Amino acid sequence: MDKITVEGVLLTPLKRIHHPMGDVFHGMKKSDAGYYGFGEAYFSTINCSDTKPWKKHFEMTLNFVVPMGEIRFVIYDDREGSPTNNHFFDVILGENNYQRITIPPRVWVAFNGVGTTYNLLLNLANLEHDPNEIERKENLSDIPYAW
To answer: In degrees to the nearest 10, what's the CA dihedral of 42, 103, 95, 110?
Structure first.
């Protein structure tokens, strides 16, 4: 199991049920840790070797699941007063490590495509998207991390 180094981040192992006519990928139940209500669900893809830069939600909790491919997530905590302030957490999720990562509000997240085929992400967010509750950094170098 990955050692979580940012307070509030959760990794939840998920079931993948194999079936000869197509697999079932569990995502989230309302009884799961990390479930704080439902606002929206969306899918996103990321190409191999591409990196989507840093973003931080002020209120939204993210729940990322990677049912196809592999995606590397890096979380950075710059919350004043947090016991994990200035800590990073880095994990690769996907077909070989099928888990859900819960990312609390007020921490930064960036991610890149690791899988060489199709990298698919599902976000099960507790709030609907609101462009006023997010901050973005368009340059990866704005937060020093060795990608």
So the answer is: 80
- Answer yes or no: are the C-beta atoms of 64 and 103 closer than 8 Å: yes
Is residue 141 included in any domain, yes or no?
Answer: no
pLDDT tens sequence across 49-84: 999 999 999 999 999 999 999 999 999 999 999 999
User: Could you tell me the two tokens for 84?
Assistant: 């994990």
Structure tokens at 9: 């981040």
Please enumerate in sequence order all residues whose Cβ is within 8 A of that of 122, keeping only pairs 6 or more positions apart, or say none.
27, 41, 42, 43, 64, 65, 66, 67
Question: Which range of residues forms the domain containing residue 64?
Answer: 10-130
Number of domains in the chain: 1
Task: Record the tokens describing residue 92, joined without a space.
Answer: 């690769």
User: pTM of this prediction?
Assistant: 0.95
